[in-house]
C-alpha cells in the first residue's frame, strides 16, 4: 500500500517543499523546487548578442579579422562615411535638377522633363565611355590616386548639378557636364574598388569580401534613405542658404573621409612613385 504525505503548508516559506511516499517499510522523499524564469537582463543581453552576430555575419567577411588586411575596418568606416555624404548630397542635387526641369509646376510638360533627364544621362554615359577609352590602363598602377580622383570628380558633378538651375539657358549643358562627372566617378570607383577588394582578401576570399562590400553599401543606402527622407530633407527644407550650407558641410566631410580612407591603405605592390620613394 502506497501513502503520500505532504508537508504542512503552514511551514516557513524559506523551507523547501517536500513530498514523502511510503510503501510498506520503504519511504521515499522528494524535494520540490520552483522553476526560475530567466532574468529580463539575460534575455535582453541574449537578443542584443544575436542581433550583433547577425549583423556581423551579414556585413563582415567570414573569419574576420584574420581573413582580411589589418586596415580593413578603418578603411570601411571612412568609406561608409563618404558614401553616406554622397547619398545625402545626391538628394539635394537631384531635387535641384528636378525643380529646374519643371517638376511640380502646373505648366511644365512631364514628357519634356523626362526627355531632358534621359538626354542628360545619355551624355553622361558617353562621357564616361570616352574617359575609359583614354585612361583605362592606369587604374591598377595608381589605385589610391584614381580612388581620390573618382570621389573628387563626383564632388564636381554634384556641384554642377546644384549650379545647373542658376545657369539659365545653359541649364542643359551644365546638367550634362554634371552627369558626365558622376558617371566617370562610377566607372573609376568601380575599377579601383576591384583592386582594393583584391588587396583586402587575405585568405583567398575575394568573392566573400566583395559580397560584404556590396552588403555594406546596401546598408548605407537604406540608412541614408531613412535619414534623408525623414530627418535631413525636412530639416534643410527649401531654403537656399540652408541647402547650400548642408551641401558644403557634407562635401567637406566627404573629402576628409576619402583622404583618411585612402591614406590608411597599405598596398603591397609598387608603382612608379612608390618605387622612387623605396629606392631612396
TrEMBL record:
Keywords: Membrane, Transmembrane, Transmembrane helix. The chain crosses the membrane at residues 219-237, 243-270. GO terms for cellular component: membrane. Residues 48-277 form the Protein root UVB sensitive/RUS domain. Pfam families: UVB_sens_prot. It is found in: Membrane. Belongs to the RUS1 family. PANTHER family: RUS FAMILY MEMBER 1 (PTHR12770:SF31), RUS1 FAMILY PROTEIN C16ORF58 (PTHR12770). This is Protein root UVB sensitive/RUS domain-containing protein.
Amino acid at each position: 500500500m502506497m501513502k503520500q504525505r505532504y508537508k504542512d503548508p503552514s511551514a516557513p516559506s524559506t523551507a523547501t517543499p517536500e513530498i514523502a511516499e511510503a510503501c510498506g517499510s520503504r519511504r521515499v522523499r522528494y524535494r520540490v523546487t520552483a522553476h526560475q524564469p530567466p532574468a529580463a537582463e539575460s534575455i535582453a543581453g541574449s537578443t542584443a548578442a544575436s542581433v550583433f552576430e547577425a549583423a556581423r555575419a551579414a556585413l563582415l567577411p567570414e573569419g574576420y579579422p584574420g581573413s582580411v588586411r589589418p586596415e580593413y575596418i578603418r578603411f570601411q568606416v571612412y568609406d561608409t562615411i563618404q558614401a553616406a555624404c554622397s547619398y545625402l548630397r545626391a538628394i539635394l542635387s537631384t531635387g535641384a535638377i528636378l525643380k529646374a526641369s519643371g517638376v511640380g509646376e502646373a505648366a511644365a510638360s512631364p514628357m519634356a522633363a523626362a526627355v531632358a533627364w534621359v538626354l542628360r544621362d545619355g551624355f553622361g554615359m558617353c562621357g564616361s565611355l570616352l574617359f575609359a577609352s583614354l585612361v583605362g590602363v592606369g587604374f591598377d598602377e595608381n589605385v589610391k590616386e584614381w580612388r581620390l580622383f573618382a570621389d573628387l570628380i563626383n564632388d564636381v558633378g554634384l556641384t554642377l548639378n546644384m549650379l545647373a538651375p542658376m545657369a539659365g539657358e545653359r541649364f542643359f549643358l551644365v546638367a550634362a557636364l554634371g552627369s558626365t562627372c558622376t558617371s566617370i566617378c562610377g566607372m573609376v570607383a568601380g575599377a579601383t574598388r576591384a583592386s582594393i577588394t583584391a588587396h583586402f582578401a587575405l585568405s583567398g576570399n575575394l568573392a566573400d569580401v566583395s559580397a560584404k562590400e556590396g552588403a555594406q553599401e546596401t546598408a548605407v543606402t537604406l540608412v541614408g534613405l531613412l535619414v534623408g527622407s525623414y530627418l535631413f530633407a525636412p530639416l534643410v527644407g527649401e531654403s537656399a542658404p540652408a541647402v547650400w550650407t548642408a551641401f558644403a558641410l557634407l562635401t567637406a566631410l566627404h573629402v576628409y573621409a576619402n583622404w583618411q580612407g585612402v591614406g590608411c591603405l597599405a598596398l603591397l605592390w609598387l608603382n612608379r612613385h612608390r618605387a622612387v620613394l623605396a629606392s631612396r
